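Re: that backbone. Tokens:
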């Protein structure tokens, strides 16, 4: 039924799709034929051309993926898919929590199934074409199986709890729901590096040697309580390189991809590690944790306001109101706020990246090491060297490499 909610959600869905299309198109337009001078020592003409082809291929494929998702969503919605699914679910059980788990579970599985061919094509055709892909079909399947099992083991109990709380306490359950999910995600953040990430990758303590000694010296200099640095087998899936910091308290881990170690010298790797320690020292990790918990609070509070709202159910063609339906349909209403928050988080994240870079430059006293590491990373990952500012504004958690390098040059 066409009502205010219907129009609002439709306008949101179409508006964000359009924004995405426009940002991708201007991003393609911003590919420059001349190699930026700062990269002349790492990229040659053919590598630069390849990086641009990669950006073009990924952009076109992204557009196709987004269009397909949009068309399928609109078709499902307008053909009465939500109402149809709700009736089937209600026909099977009177229990609202079980009905909710089924309703959300089917929608979740459906969307995963739709994205499967795109995942396959992205990994085995596009990434393969540029020599990045190292994922075997076996690893791909196992990743999906493990991911799905984790969603069931972790997602089902927490979803059941949320459904139960709103069923029991109505709108005022938002506070309990928020506390429960916040506590749960803190526990997950604490435990994931030890119990979940190893399901997907092997974490090996870094071998004794020049690199480890240099890293140890550096972390002492930073007064960083480094217990262990891990090498992870990123090469199991891709030749792309990376490094990250994760976890809390004694479960925190710094991990360097084996692909990064292979292509960089000790100076560069120590600089990358100093950057990661910079995130910790500058309290970026706690900052993003607090912000994501606050964001959850806003989400739960607003969800409480729209609980069992008949107009919202009418817009999605569902007759009977329910907590689980409220949860799903509210997510569509929340989309503009969620997009806005994600843009704000990315502005903050880009600022934090500059801070971590500056920290690394200061503590190592060698900005040139990080510059050289970032340049190699750009080349190895075929990064887009000239992304459009509007695309960066909407999508980049890290500043474009050229800007990071310019900021580091200024510190020399
Ligand atoms: Zn960083």
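Recovered sequence:
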């Amino acid at each position: 039924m066409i009502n205010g909610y219907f129009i609002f959600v439709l306008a949101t869905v179409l508006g964000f799709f359009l924004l995405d299309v426009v940002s991708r198109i201007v991003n393609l337009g911003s590919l420059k034929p001349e190699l930026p001078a700062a990269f002349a020592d790492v990229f040659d003409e053919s590598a630069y051309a390849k990086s641009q082809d990669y950006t073009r291929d990924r952009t076109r494929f992204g557009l196709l993926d987004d269009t397909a998702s949009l068309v399928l969503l609109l078709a499902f919605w307008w053909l009465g898919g939500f109402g149809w699914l709700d009736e089937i679910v209600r026909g099977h059980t009177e229990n609202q929590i079980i009905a909710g788990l089924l309703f959300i579970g089917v929608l979740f599985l459906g969307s995963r199934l739709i994205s499967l061919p795109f995942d396959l094509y992205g990994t085995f055709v596009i990434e393969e074409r540029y020599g990045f892909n190292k994922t075997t079909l076996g690893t791909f399947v196992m990743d999906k199986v493990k991911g799905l099992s984790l969603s069931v083991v972790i997602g089902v109990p927490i979803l059941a709890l949320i459904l139960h709380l709103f069923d029991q306490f109505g709108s005022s359950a938002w506070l309990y729901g928020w506390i429960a999910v916040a506590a749960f995600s803190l526990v997950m953040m604490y435990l994931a590096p030890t119990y979940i990430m190893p399901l997907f990758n092997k974490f090996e303590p870094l071998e004794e040697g020049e690199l480890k000694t240099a890293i140890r010296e550096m972390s002492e200099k930073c007064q960083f309580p480094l217990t262990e640095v891990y090498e992870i087998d990123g090469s199991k899936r891709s030749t792309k390189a990376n490094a990250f910091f994760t976890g809390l308290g004694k479960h925190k881990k710094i991990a360097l991809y084996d692909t990064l170690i292979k292509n960089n010298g000790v100076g560069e790797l120590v600089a990358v590690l100093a950057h990661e320690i910079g995130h910790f020292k500058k309290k970026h990790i706690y900052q993003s944790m607090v912000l994501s918990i606050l964001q959850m609070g806003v989400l739960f509070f607003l969800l409480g306001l729209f609980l069992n709202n008949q107009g919202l159910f009418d817009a999605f063609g569902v007759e009977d109101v329910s907590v689980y339906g409220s949860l799903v349909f509210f997510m569509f209403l929340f989309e503009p706020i969620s997009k806005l928050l994600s843009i704000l988080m990315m502005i903050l994240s880009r600022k934090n990246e500059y801070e971590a870079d500056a920290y690394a430059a200061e503590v190592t006293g060698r900005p040139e090491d990080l510059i050289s590491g970032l340049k190699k990373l750009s080349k190895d990952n075929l990064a887009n060297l000239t992304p459009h500012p509007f695309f960066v504004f909407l999508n980049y958690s890290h500043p474009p490499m050229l800007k990071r390098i310019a900021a580091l040059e200024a510190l020399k």
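Residues 143 and 373 are 30 Å apart (CA to CA). The chain has a mean pLDDT of 94.
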